[in-house]
What we know:
With 294 residues, the protein is an alpha/beta fold.
Amino acid sequence: MKLEAASRAIRRAQPAASRPRLEVRGKFFFAGDEKVPLRGVTYGPFAPDANGYRFPAPEVVARDLALITELGANCLRLFTPPPRWLLDLAAERNLWVLVGIPWAEHVCFLDSEEITDNVRRTVTEIVESCRDHPAVGAFLIGNEIPPDIVRWYGPQRIAGFLRELTALVKQVEPGALVGYANFPSTEYLETDFTDFLAFNVYLHSEPEFRRYLSRLHSLAGDRPLVLTEFGIDSFHEGETMQASTLSWQVRAALDMGVAGTVVFSFTDEWYTGGCDIQNWAFGLVDRERRCKPA
């Protein structure tokens, strides 16, 4: 029954008419003549299904994407590779997708030729699986390599490997945009070879938040700056605090000329490290998709 439902959803979800590829012009994104400020939410990761995909069933994803667009988003950030039918559903809703490419960032990966070869193969396979899809806005070739790993190898060696992965993406999908989701603990890791500067920032003081965005603009130079994660936990801080914090964070980001904002996350449902996380609640909606004040 699950496969039949998936098949029906795939037949219903035809890709939207071809649209211009997302591209960088100065500090912002454009699709053709249209300027595109990315207004995003993170989606997943979820528990794996029988086929290994880390997403709900197609009918659940379709309902989620309808609610996401109703909330005003035009972008999804994914941490795991999407099946083609999910990209089709996103295209139906005119959503841009930031495709995260997961790999073993949290181990001493440069010590192992087997691991680095696997990373290269993973990047190639995921980009090939998304090739030429109108929903794909960009690829993220990594996320928050830990500071001890970066210090151990030195930022130049890590940057060299990320540069190689960027070139792999461009080889498979010429013209694709590529970023790397960095965070403040390793801001010294320079990624000037990416198309835009992507940072995950969790600061809950508005003056500090604004000052750090100024700092990130200096690192971005002439490239767009995208906040690929920001948010606050309503489980510990309360839903009222979550709503007020996200309100000024989005406003401050727009005031400061950020090209894209991605709230972590759409839903409280979050599966990572082989566990269903129950004691955090970063979602704009709860597990039953009931909207919070945020």
